[in-house]
Amino acid sequence: AIYEFAVIFSIRVKDQDAFERNFFQLKVFYMDTRGILPPSPEEYRILGLNLMRLLAENRVAEFHTELELLPPRALDHPCIKYAVELEQSFMEGTYNRLTNGRQAVPHETYLYFMDLLAETIRDEIADCSGQAYDHLPVDDARKMLMFSSEQKLLEYISE
Predict the structure, then answer these.
(1) Are 23 and 7 in contact (CB under 8 A)?
(2) Given this model, what pLDDT does residue 100 score?
(3) Where does the PCI domain start and stop, copy by copy (predicted)?
(4) Which of 1, 43, 86, 89 is most buried, taking the most CB atoms under 10 A from its CB?
């Protein structure tokens, strides 16, 4: 339970490195006790959060590796299913479904990684747009990168 708390706390303080560190310590416990102890009520939520982290960091190969390690019943859990559906949308390039997915998160702790995923998507779109267009009107770029205002687009560009 203490490692689960540490994982959730790292999200609350927006510390990705701490999340990864704490998750790996917790994952050992989950794997070593599988079939011996009943699963923690938080296990699938936390495993789903890790999948979200991997998506947000664009580490798709690791996402699939982690998915393969899950027991088959885990795939039916809403937290795992949510991450899998987002990954499918990410791979298909249906970014609107990804950004709209923020309203359908299975738990409020997922919002942190949804925000990071939105940044990853914007970076992907910006990279592709930079290769595809010599010139792009500001309003078109704003819509393409899914910004609500021109000011937010300009802030993004200046970063």
Answers:
(1) yes
(2) 72
(3) 17-159
(4) 86
- Considering 93-102, 108-117, 125-134, 147-156, the range whose residues carry the highest mean pLDDT is 108-117
Mean pLDDT value of segment 127-134: 87
Burial of 146 (0-12, 13-18, 19+ CB in 10 A): middle
Q: Quick: pLDDT tens for 16-53.
A: 999 999 999 999 999 998 889 988 999 999 999 999 99
CA–CA gap between residue 42 and residue 20 (Å, rounded)? 16
DSSP string for residues in 30-90: HHHHBTTBPPPTTHHHHHHHHHHHHHHTT-HHHHHHHHHHS-GGGGGSHHHHHHHHHHHHH
Q: Could you say which architecture CATH assigns to the domain 2-124? A: Alpha Horseshoe (1.25)
Whether the model clears a pTM of 0.85, i.e. scores above it, the answer is yes
User: Residue 11 burial by CB count (10 A; 0-12/13-18/19+): exposed, middle or buried?
Assistant: buried
Give kind and range of the element (H or E) at residue 134.
none
**128 contacts: CB under 8 Å, gap ≥ 6:** none
| Cβ neighbours around 75 below 10 Å, total | 12
